[in-house]
Amino acid sequence: MRSLANENDRTELSQRLLQLNSSSTRHWGKMSAHQMICHLHDSFKAATGEKAVSPAGSVFYRTIIKWIALYAPLSWPRGVPTRPEMDQQVGGTAPAEWEKDLSDLRLIIDRFSREPRDFLWQPHPLFGGMSTGAWLRWGYLHVDHHLRQFGL
Asked: What is the CATH number of the domain that holds 125?
């Protein structure tokens, strides 16, 4: 299973991120490439406790849906709404400078993946508490999902 715990998987995502540019065209959804970069950065910041995010979901999401999302051999579905704090048109971080925003994302992915960690995992807004392995799996899947949104 692919995960940010695996150096080859991190390298693959990093190379795909470098293929993205501010004018990349989305295949689905509403975000621009630049908004997507900021969305991913905000999501990692929520996991590390640097950005507050409102909880949602239920026991069903914290058990069944979490297992399916992290471990079933399925691609994540398109069009699942994000939390308002991660939505760049609502409460997410507004895109500023492409190169800096992309660099910040790549840095937080590295920090998120590195041991020892200088942060404590925060509960996922839908999935609740997660182990380190689950967070690293989620991180890979989330970035992969949005890169596929832009054909990468």
From this structure: 1.20.120
pLDDT reported for residue 126: 94
Q: How far apart are CA 17 and CA 13, in angstroms?
A: 6
CB 83 within 8 A of CB 125: yes
Q: Give pLDDT, residue 89.
A: 87
Averaged over successive runs of 10 residues, the pLDDT of the chain (152 residues) comes to: 97 97 95 97 97 92 96 92 88 95 97 96 96 98 98 97
3-state secondary structure of 150: coil
Cis peptide before 77 (omega within 30 of 0): no
User: Look-up: residue for tokens 């409460």?
Assistant: 91
Q: Please check whether residue 29 lies inside any domain of the structure.
A: yes
Alpha-carbon dihedral angle through residues 82, 152, 41, 63, given to the nearest 10 degrees: 50
Query: Which residue bears the tokens 């508490």?
Result: 129
Cα separation, 89 vs 67, in Å, equals: 29
pLDDT of residue 81: 85
Domain count, the chain: 1
Residue with tokens 């596929």: 148
Could you tell me the pTM of the whole model? 0.96
* Burial environment of residue 139 by CB neighbours within 10 A (0 to 12, 13 to 18, 19 or more): buried
Which DSSP state fits 128?
A: B
